[in-house]
Structures are given as C-alpha cells and as structure tokens.
Amino acid sequence: AFRQVRSTLVDLPTGTGKTIVFSLLVALARQHNRRVLILVNRDSLVSQTVRRLKADVGITASIEKAETKAETWAPVVVASVQTLGRKGKPKMVEGEKICFSRIQRWDPHAFNLIVIDEGHHATADSYQMVLDYFKSAKVVGVTATSDRGDDNYLQDVYQTTAYRMSFPTAVEQGWLVPVRPRFRHVPGLDLSELRRVGQELDIKQQAKILRNVDILEKMAFPTAEEIGNQKAVVFNARVNDSRVFCELLRKCGIVAESVYHGNGMKMARRREIIAAYKRGDIQVLCNVDCLTEGFDDPQIRYVVQGRWTLSPVVYAQQVGRGTRPLPGIVDGLSSPEERRAAIANSDKPHVDVIDFAGNTGEHKLMGVPSLLLKDGEDPEVASRATALMREDEGLSAEDAMQIARTLVAEAKRREPKKLAYQDEFVDPFYRTAPGQVLSLFEIGRDLQMFPKKPTVQQLERLRQLGVDKASDYTRDEAIRVLAELEHRQKRGKARIRQVRALVNHGYDRDKAMQMTFEDASKKLFELQNNNWTPVDLAGASA
Questions:
Q1: 143: pLDDT strictly greater than 70
Q2: Which of 52, 254, 361, 376 is at a distance of 20 to 30 A from 423, taking alpha carbons?
C-alpha cells in the first residue's frame, strides 16, 4: 500500500495481533533507518506501548507525554496525541504574545512513518493537526473496530485498507474463541424512551434508569449466579451504577472492584486494581470506559453488558475483551482445524456474553449477531437475529442468524415488483457500463488509482434520481453526475428513469433526453395503455 499511497489502515479483531503488526512494522522501518512516531489516544497507553515495543522487537522508544519530553532526535517516539497537540504558554516575541504548540519542538520532516494505535480515532481534530504538520510521513492506522458496515468516515484519513480480517474469519481460523450469548430479560427495564445523541444512546439517561437499585439487583444477582467462580468484566454506563453493581456482587460473595476515570479515582489506584484483577485477586471488574481499549486478559470467561449501545464499534470493543484464547493454546499450530480443536478442548472453549434486555421500543440495540455478520451481509440479518434471541432466550446465536437470513431473504423475495418499464429490460447505458452514463453528460472517468467512494448521502440521492449502480462511481464522479441531474430537475427535464424506459421501448436516446418531464410522462402513459408497444415511432429509432 505504501508504494502507492500515503496512508493505509490495518483492521484486525481484538486479540489477533495488531500490536505485534505495528511493532514489526516499526522494527522494519528502523532497519531502513527510518524514524517513527506512534500516536496513542490515552496517556495510560503510552507506557504500555513502550513496554510492548521493548518486549516484542527489542526497540527502546522515547516518550512524549505531559511533562515528559522526548529527545527531538529520538528514532522512535511514543506520544499522547493530546500532549503533542497541546498549546504551550504564551511567550513575548518582539513585544507580541505568541502561543507555541508542543508539536513545534519538532522539525516537520522529523518522521518517516506515523503509526496510529486505535486508528479509528484518527478523524479527530487532534490527530488531523499532527498528520498535517508531519506531511511527508507515511501513515498507518491499526484498529480492531473500523466497523465494516459504516466506515466511510475513515476514508478522509486512510486512502486504502491494506488488510482486514472480520471477527467470524478470526474464529473460523482458530485465532479467537467463539462467542456464546446470553440474553436475560429484566422485568421493569424500559429503554424505549432513551434519546439518541448522534449515533448513540444518551448515557446520562441510561444512568438515570440505573439509579433504580431494583433494576440493578435484577441484573447483578443473576450475573453472580451464572458466572460462578469464573472471571468476568462488566461494562457500566456511569460511575454510580458501576459502584452499586459492584456492591451487589459483593453481597453474593464475589470479590469485585469498580474502575473508572476521574470522580476521585487516581491513575495509580486504577492501575493497582487492574493489576490485582490480572493476578486473579479480583474475580469481577466493573468499569466505565476503562477497558474498551488497551486492556487484555485471556482469563476472562464472561463479558457482562450493563449498558446499552447502538454502535457496533463500541459493542465489538467490549465483547473483544473476552475473545482471546488461553495463553499457549493455539501457539505453534499450523492449521485452522488444529487451532479450533485446541480451543474447543481447552478450559475456555468459548466466552459467554450476558446481554440484559427490556422494552427497547424502536431502538435496534447491538447484540452478538452484529459480530457474526459476514462481509457485505445485510445488517438487517443481525437486527432480526438479535430480536429473535430477545424473544427466545434459549436460542443460540448461530440458529438465530440462520433463521434471520431466511426471513430477510423471504422478505426481499416478497417485495412488490417494480413496473415493467422500470425493471424488466436491460438498461442500455446504466446497468452494464457505468462509463456510459457519464457520457450522457460528457463527463470523463475519474482515473485515480485509489479514489474515494461516494458518501452515503450521495448514494441515496443518486438512487432517488434514478441511478441504479451508484456505488460504481467515485466520489468526484458522483458530485458531477448529481450536479447534472439536479440541473435537469430544476429545468423540468425528463427524469432518468423516464429516459431509460423510453429508450428501452425504442425511442431515440438523445430525443428522450430533450423531453420535458410532462412530455415524457405522457409518452409513458400512452405506452402503458398500449401494452408497452409504441403508439407512434415517428422521430424514434426502433
């Protein structure tokens, strides 16, 4: 990818080695005397990344974080993006106050390669400022959560995806343990009125619902009963319900602790609790946004969803905490069959995910089926499978997905068919060759090697205006075609669907293109009343 573009993405599920991938990439860069900057999105991940580089490939990195400043000549630097983009204190320069940014310590050509850990964050302004400053550096993002269903927003940062592995593929190849979901209905839990904030559910509203101790008891007590003596991690909405959930588990005799950012918990205390959990001194760790990234413990057997999300990215991050196989189980095994068999015969043949459900109304909350979607598969399959599992708590995810696939396929088969003049005939210039539709408006093809795809909004508008294979266009082509189509509509010209139907029934394309909307409608009405046989082909080519 780097031979052709500046920036690319590597998308690997949690537990399949993204840290190893970028560590080896850093080592390769150093073999060629290239300098490397590694960006992380939390201060707590800086020291963790430095340790992994040393352990995995023997590279010592300098740190740029808070009060710690890396040497500007250092060959490898691990930096907190918040620190690198931070403005310094104003200084008087020739009688004028000037505020220097932290990044200005560095020469703009200091680095040849920039690695972005948790690369899905790279659309944020802080990352963009760093990438714009070091314009000559190649950029690679590594992520476990680019969200195959809606990752168009990442195209503004990464020109290509160099490699991608889906969660089902990782399980099939024996790198991750299968997920076994458990839906648990909570009487009295009503999520139907939760507001959306952007693409998510309002966390503050969730916290209000979870102030009801009765609701939390109906979640915590079944959790304690089900997990037994196995290690678990719980994801909570806010600090209050995390603390209460933790206390309720303790009442059941479980050693549990809660970790979170702020609210009086210092970083040192948070690290102490997480270390105790990894040692096995703590059985259950309740958390608020502390463990979604940069936290690994293969001993986790249960993941408990104590908050709700509409985001497949967030859901995948949380479930991914439990999908690693036990240490050494798949090491050295060369085939997927061997690895899957080793996992199946291990003390951790799967990870259990407990989802608490209530009245969700119209909200399509994420569930395990969203992780099991195959590349390119209709997201409606996951939505239907999740609904089936909420209705029947004994239904397995695999069975639910199979039923959902059948239901979705049947629904599509029963969709009302379009009128014959819209769908029956082969489109002479739309469906077979995208380049020909551009020729209608004398638009040349966009010959970029890695062009951007149209946005979701562009695709929808093109479909509304009658362009069936809109996804075949580049973003620039879509912009130009939309401009032409919008212009035709304003001038009252025939719609593209009308032109298509007239051409399919023998009318001259150029004359059909010149018709008004009203004239084209009359011609089509005449055709329909005459069993789609042209009434008068005068001036038309049969």
A1: yes
A2: 376
